[in-house]
Specification:
Strands 2-3-4-1-5 form a five-stranded parallel sheet, covered by helices on one side. The N and C termini lie far apart (54 Å). By secondary structure, it is an alpha/beta fold. The mean pLDDT is 87. Helix 12 packs antiparallel against helix 17. It is globular, with a radius of gyration of 23 Å. The protein is built from 17 helices and five strands. It binds zinc ion. The site of zinc ion has 7 residues, from helix 3.
């Protein structure tokens, strides 16, 4: 199957990328390569597959067959080991100037295998302004064989000087049926479960897959969605906020603990802590303690980012719940994201007014904004749960 097979319901974007990969192959073969662009911006709502699309395009550029999906080049891009592709994720909450400058230097080199050198920026909207300026210079005068692939929720998230130099690829939220089909055919998920997961994930294919396949993820989602009906007293609100923050901390721990250990032990090895059993401090060459400290602060900031992303995901689940309530209140005939909780949705719809549902949704969005502005999570979430509770 071609590398574009993972891009569910994105026919327009896929056609554009295929065409560009063709032009790129022409350029590699010495032709004019008309239509080849050195900077691309992949945009679309969360879960539409921005980085999946960018990765598929990278494979199509490097594959001698424009993305066959089974050659060495396609495979290496897929697992992230291709020497000419640099995958970049922010080290902390944003890309630093230093991180970006290093990249720009690296990107300036010629490709090792002779086709293209590709830099794939996930979450490029997290580039700080100073880092964006470093990036802009590189994009303005790209080396002949360097391609930049940036991913961001919307073109507006990038500063205009960068945006105007990129060709924009727009992805959309794939329809529920399409996502369910992929889960059923590719992951062997029973059709009913696939449909449930696709609805619950609201078109986010990666999340739909996790909901379908991971019991733990389903349990956490249940926990989050049980919050609206648990909010009767002030004490309940405080407890619910604690629970939400705790769920995101657990998510972050699950994602980072093993990774941190590997990184730390590798760094220790580099700085000479062998199997002799001697302590780090004695065995370390000068600078090792500093490097270890740097790594620790990096890991801490990564954990914060994952925790924040996980909390945001929980809030989006809550937004979807209240949106379902509003849909029922307004008599809209639509598919509910929480079809499996229709009973609860309808009960809340009867017990409250559309105005109060809108006010509750606003409270959740406000909470997301405050979290993005680094407000203490417990405080921000508590303010939200209190607002979700307050009577009509
Ligand atoms: Zn291939």
């Amino acid at each position: 199957m071609s590398v574009f097979g993972d891009l569910v319901g994105q026919d327009k974007a896929v056609a554009l990328l295929r065409q560009a990969a063709g032009a790129a192959a022409e350029a590699v073969a010495g032709g004019r390569g008309a239509g080849m662009t050195h900077a691309w911006l992949f945009t679309g709502p969360p879960g539409s597959g921005r980085s999946t699309a960018a990765r598929a395009f990278a494979a199509a550029l490097l594959c001698p067959d424009q993305g066959c999906g089974h050659c060495e080049a396609c495979h290496q891009v897929d697992v992230g080991s291709h020497p000419d592709v640099t995958f970049v994720r922010p080290e902390g909450l944003s890309y630093s100037v230093r991180q970006t400058r290093e990249l720009v230097l690296k990107a300036a080199g010629a490709p090792t295998l002779g086709r293209w050198r590709i830099v794939l920026f996930e979450d490029a909207d997290r580039v700080t302004e100073a880092a964006a300026n470093a990036l802009l210079k590189a994009i303005e005068e790209p080396p002949p064989r360097t391609v930049w692939l940036l991913c961001a929720p919307s073109p507006d998230d990038m500063i205009i000087t960068i945006r105007s130099r990129c060709r924009v690829v727009t992805l959309r939220t794939p329809p529920t049926e399409a996502v369910a089909n992929v889960l059923a055919t590719r992951d062997g998920v029973p059709h009913e479960t696939a449909l449930f997961a696709a609805r619950a994930a609201q078109g986010h294919i990666g999340r739909a897959r996790r909901i379908a396949l991971d019991e733990q993820v389903r349990r956490r989602r249940d926990e989050v969605l049980s919050i609206p009906r648990s909010l009767t007293g002030v004490g309940d609100c405080v407890a619910a906020a604690e629970r939400l923050v705790k769920i995101s901390t657990e998510d972050s721990d699950a994602a980072t603990t093993a990774l941190n250990e590997v990184e730390t032990s590798e760094l220790r090895k580099v700085y000479g802590e062998g199997s002799s059993g001697k302590g780090l401090n004695r065995g370390l060459v000068r600078g090792g303690a500093g490097a270890l400290k740097d790594l620790e602060s990096l890991q801490k900031s990564r954990a914060t980012r994952i925790k924040r992303d996980s909390l945001d995901l929980a809030l989006l689940d809550l937004v979807a719940f209240y949106r379902d309530v509003l849909a029922v209140q307004l008599g809209a005939v639509v598919e509910l994201a929480n079809e499996d909780r229709r009973h609860e949705v309808e009960a809340l719809a009867r017990a409250s007014s559309p105005e109060s549902t809108l006010r509750r949704t606003d409270a959740i969005m406000k909470c997301r904004e405050r979290l993005a502005a680094n407000v203490n999570p417990q405080i921000a979430v508590e303010a939200m749960t209190l607002a979700l509770r307050s009577p009509v």
